[in-house]
UniProtKB/TrEMBL annotation:
Catalysed reaction equations from the record: uridine(746) in 23S rRNA = pseudouridine(746) in 23S rRNA; uridine(32) in tRNA = pseudouridine(32) in tRNA
PROSITE patterns: PSI_RLU
Similarity field: Belongs to the pseudouridine synthase RluA family.
Organism annotation: Vibrio kanaloae
The Pseudouridine synthase RsuA/RluA-like domain, residue ranges: 22-167
Protein purpose: Dual specificity enzyme that catalyzes the synthesis of pseudouridine from uracil-746 in 23S ribosomal RNA and from uracil-32 in the anticodon stem and loop of transfer RNAs.
Gene3D superfamilies reported in the protein's UniProt record: Pseudouridine synthase
EC number(s) reported in the record: 5.4.99.28, 5.4.99.29
UniProt protein name: Dual-specificity RNA pseudouridine synthase RluA
Source taxonomy: Bacteria, Pseudomonadati, Pseudomonadota, Gammaproteobacteria, Vibrionales
Keywords, comma-separated and alphabetical: Isomerase, rRNA processing, tRNA processing
Length: 244
């Protein structure tokens, strides 16, 4: 799907998974921008829909337009600063599901390939060992299928298109990916099969660990399991003792 054909889904208009006085978590549908694009025709986004009801809503992180799943927002500036600091110090943890084309070698592993914007082909990204930013993704094979493999993806860093490029680079592009999939992998699915299913962070009001889960549309049997893959402290660590 090219942005020139931007036709975001309208139902549900907003799917709020959780909210309180400080934070709001939504299940963003595939095909909707996280924030408005530069042109007026790309204004419709998760943020622009929410700001109509929550005037001070702040975006903490983003999902690609084609990716579905959990998106965390702050209801005021103090909460925004608190949460963005957690992303900076990699205190948040995310678990994605992806259906990729073909087989993946081994049951699990780490993809460690530096990424940089492919400026002549924006918004595509590419591997660059000279100038790319360090980028790491853990993967675990969840299920082998006839033509595809279902992966759990556990990003260590959070670069643009990181999961999509890393899967492509190990020879297993995500099906339905308009930028990185082979023609047969792209045609296999009517959407990018990438979903942010679980998120763990520290609540800005309490500094206590907070975790949340939403089911995966293309893998409905998925259950919460982020704690099987990360050791997560119950309380917010001291920032001063950490390196960004």
């Amino acid at each position: 799907m090219a942005l020139e054909e931007y036709t975001p889904p309208r139902e549900p208009w907003i799917d709020i998974v959780y909210q309180d006085d400080d934070i709001l978590v939504v299940n963003k549908p595939a095909g909707l921008l996280s924030v408005p694009g530069r042109l007026p025709e790309y204004y419709d986004s998760m943020w622009s829909r929410l700001v109509e009801e929550f005037a001070d809503i702040q975006v903490v992180h983003r999902l690609d337009m084609s990716t579905s799943g959990l998106m965390l927002l702050a209801k005021h500036k103090q909460a925004e600063c608190h949460l963005k600091k957690q992303f900076q110090y990699r205190l948040t943890h995310k678990l994605y599901y992806a259906r990729v084309w073909g087989k993946v070698e081994g049951r699990e592993g780490v993809i460690d390939l530096p990424l940089i914007c492919d400026w002549s082909n924006r918004p595509r990204q590419k591997v660059c060992f000279d100038e790319g930013k360090p980028s790491q993704t853990r993967y675990v094979v969840e299920q082998e299928e006839a033509q595809t493999t279902l992966l759990k993806l556990l990003p260590i860093t959070g670069r643009s298109h990181q999961l999509r490029v890393h899967c492509m680079e190990i020879g297993a592009p995500i099906v339905g990916d308009e930028f990185y999939a082979t023609p047969e992998a792209f045609e296999y699915s009517d959407r990018l099969a990438l979903h942010a299913s679980e998120l763990s962070f520290y609540h800005p009001a309490t500094n206590q660990r907070f975790k949340i889960f939403v089911p995966c549309e293309f893998y409905p049997q998925a259950l919460p399991q982020i704690e099987q893959h990360f050791e997560i402290a119950p309380e917010l660590p001291d920032y001063s003792k950490l390196k960004a």
